[in-house]
Amino acid sequence: MPVYGLIGRTLSHSWSVPIHKALGCEEYRLIELEPEELGEFLAREDIGGLNVTIPYKRDVMPYCAEIADTAQRVGSVNTIVPSPRGLCGHNTDLYGLQYALRRANISLSKRKVLILGSGGASLAAKAAAELEGAGSLVIVSRSGPDNYQNISRHLDAEVLINATPVGMSPHTGDLLVDPADFPDCAGVADMIYNPCRTAFLMRAEEAGIPCTDGLPMLVAQAAAAEELFTGRKGGVEKIEGILTDLRREMWNITLIGMPGCGKTTVGRALAELTGRPLIDLDEEIVKAAGRSIGDIFAHDGEAEFRRLERERIALAGRQSGHIIVTGGGAVKSPENYASLHQNGRIYHLERETALLEREGRPLSLAGDLEVLYRERRPLYERFRDAAIENSRTPRDAAEAIWRDFCESAGH
Predict the structure, then answer these.
(1) Listing from the earlier edge strand, what are the strands of the sheet with 386-389?
(2) In what order do the strands lie in the sheet with 187-190?
(3) Is residue 240 assigned to a domain?
(4) What is the 3-state secondary structure (H, E, C) of the chain?
(5) Which residues, in sequence order, are CB contacts of 146 under 8 Å at separation 6+?
(6) Residues 264 and 396 occupy one common structural domain
(7) C-alpha dihedral sign at 331, 334, 336, 339
(8) What pLDDT does residue 365 have?
(9) Tens digits of per-residue pLDDT, 328-387?
(10) 99 located within any domain
(11) 143: CATH
């Protein structure tokens, strides 16, 4: 049986298998190779089709009898198929990036394009800029003539493309440059797809700049590779369908809202409805501290509780495909927004203050809930992607959230 799969060195993070299976290649698998194993593997006679990822995109080129025009243009190979002369190397990353940019309405034509990174991933970005008729192109590296110390001379850049791993999970929050510092910036692309929204992309969002993460590129390049493997065309509808399914599967659903509004109960109903694991952050804090929330407030104060909360939220936000239930005051720490927004959708559960439960909630017992709600409402509105009224049953609220979530996935 022909061998289909992705070759690389460390592949545990890859989403290629579910993507290619959705495209119809059930035999597709991950193939981890050490450098000394590369030549022997590529000498196999049963290769049906391979994708190539770091660190081998250039290393495989000497083993290819033919190099297709796309791979020659990019300068690296990410797809290998057999040909009458031997192996033929292609590059579908170029198509994938072009697809992602078009999807986000980001044009490179006649614009100054700034590519962050000079490694293998930047080659497709460079080829795309040249092919799309960029007005000028600057490649920024840590030690080259254009680097992060003198990047201020390129603040007139109009499109920024991150081709580095900076900001990738688990190092979420890392940021090389802030798109808001570029006054003429009209587009931002990040080749990273985990997390869905890097700090780089979130800053672009805040500045109102059109942007895209790396998942559309990943799916589109896989569809192009699959066509080379089998002749089956993916097409835009297929690509978008897979993208929606992946977002739906991988995004978290986070619940925020006033203490006692029913977040835990609705979260459990959502977990039952969807089959997703539930992370209750108050429970996680109690486990980490080894004592109750009331005891933490009484002996260490709210500041210590918020510190513990930030730690637990940072860990939870890196997960995928979970239901996350926050405490009522999670919105008081601005950094929690990035942790929760990076991999999913945030729902504000609303309920009349007269119906809010108070028992076991130190801040609810200590003050006027109407005052507390007026204080926090702008914060909930800042964090949320959507508001859901919890005025009927927990199942009703869970179903409303799930409907909205399914409709929103992929956008």
Answers:
(1) 278-280, 323-325, 252-256, 344-350, 386-389
(2) 136-140, 112-116, 159-162, 187-190, 211-212
(3) no
(4) CCEEEEEECCCCCCCHHHHHHHCCCCCCEEEECCHHHHHHHHCCCCEEEEEECCCCCCCCHHHCCEECHHHHHHCCCCEEEEECCEEEEECCHHHHHHHHHHHCCCCCECCEEEEECCCCHHHHHHHHHHHCCECEEEEEECCCCCECCCHHHHCCCCEEEECCCCCCCCCCCCCCCCHHHCCCCCEEEECCCCCCCCHHHHHHHHCCCCEECCHHHHHHHHHHHHHHHHCCCCHHHHHHHHHHHHHHHHCEEEEECCCCCCHHHHHHHHHHHHCCCEEEHHHHHHHHHCCCHHHHHHHHHHHHHHHHHHHHHHHHHCCCCCEEECCCCHHHCCHHHHHHHCCEEEEEEECCHHHCCCCCCHHHHHCCHHHHHHHHHHHHHHHCCEEEECCCCHHHHHHHHHHHHHHHCCC
(5) 138, 139, 140, 154
(6) yes
(7) positive
(8) 46
(9) 999 999 999 999 999 999 999 998 766 566 565 554 444 566 778 888 899 999 999 999
(10) no
(11) 3.40.50.720
Please state the domain count of the chain. 3
| Whether residues 55 and 110 fall in one domain | no
Question: Domain with 56 in it: what CATH number?
Answer: 3.40.50.10860
Tell me the two tokens of residue 147: 């680097």
Q: Does the active-site annotation cover 57?
A: yes
In this structure, the answer to whether residues 404 and 275 fall within a common structural domain is yes
pLDDT value of residue 233: 79
Q: Are residues 135 and 69 in the same domain?
A: no
**What does pTM read for this prediction?**
0.89
- The token duo for 4 is 């289909």
Same domain, 156 and 77: no
Residue 386, domain extent: 251-408
Buried b (16+ CB within 10 A) or exposed e, 106-134: bbbeebbbbbbbbebbbbbbbbbbeebeb
55 in the same domain as 9:
yes
Q: Does 17 share its domain with 58?
A: yes
Provide the token pair at 74. Answer: 């990019």
Render pLDDT for 275-311 as a digit per residue (tens, 0 to 9). Answer: 999 999 999 999 999 999 889 988 999 999 999 999 9
Of 57, 112, 126, 263, which residue is the catalytic one? 57
Tell me: do 289 and 146 sit in the same domain: no
Sign of the dihedral through C-alpha 316, 317, 323, 327? positive
